[in-house]
Amino acid sequence: MKEKFNVIKSTCIPINIDNCNTDLIIPARYLASTTRDPQFFAEAFMHDLRYDAEGKPVGDFVLNQPSYCEPPRKGVHEIIVGAHNWGSGSSREHAAWAISGYGVRVVIASSFADIHRNNLLNCFVLPVEVTVQFQQELMQCVNSDPQTVVEVNVQEQTVTNTATGRSERFELNGYKKYCLMNAFDDIDFLLNNRDKIEAWETATHKTLAKT
Question: What is the CB-side half-sphere exposure of residue 173 using CA atoms within 13 A?
């Protein structure tokens, strides 16, 4: 979903799984679908951890626990606190679609698989890489108090644990930052710069015509 990023303050979903791969984020059988319906992907998100073979909710999985089962909305569960090597495995873009479709806008982890990181950005989900120490602090705070709020400031490129006041700065590609803050995908960016592109083409043609 295209929505401008600025400051996101939200409670979090703690998914403390190292090497949480794309098969866990969305099972392979969902890849055959051609739909881009967000609700379809919301239901597929972490499906085989959320439900058993009979389709019954797995009670001890975080998304089925009372403190975290409420669907994301503004200020509530818009942020996932993950662990190490989030999004490893295959390069399937469906994993990013599933996270976005569920309603999550930010994933915080101590490291990301590179392709998945880019897929998240292309789907308007911000990957925030922090130190292991900060990730562990966030995880501990969220597990201890599900009402813990984390603030992500895209302009300043900072993430703050409001429970402790501690902040870290995260890296973000300048182009992707601009696109997130303006709710632009790559096509939107080109269309927004159409006049500049056409002016450059006109100038180039005139220059070539003189040679």
Answer: 12
User: What is the residue-level pLDDT of the chain in tens, covering all 211 positions?
Assistant: 689 999 999 999 999 999 999 999 999 999 887 788 999 999 999 999 999 999 999 999 999 999 999 999 999 999 999 999 999 998 889 999 999 999 999 999 999 999 999 999 999 999 999 999 999 999 999 999 999 999 999 999 999 999 999 999 999 999 999 999 999 988 888 888 888 887 787 777 777 677 6
The model's pTM: 0.91
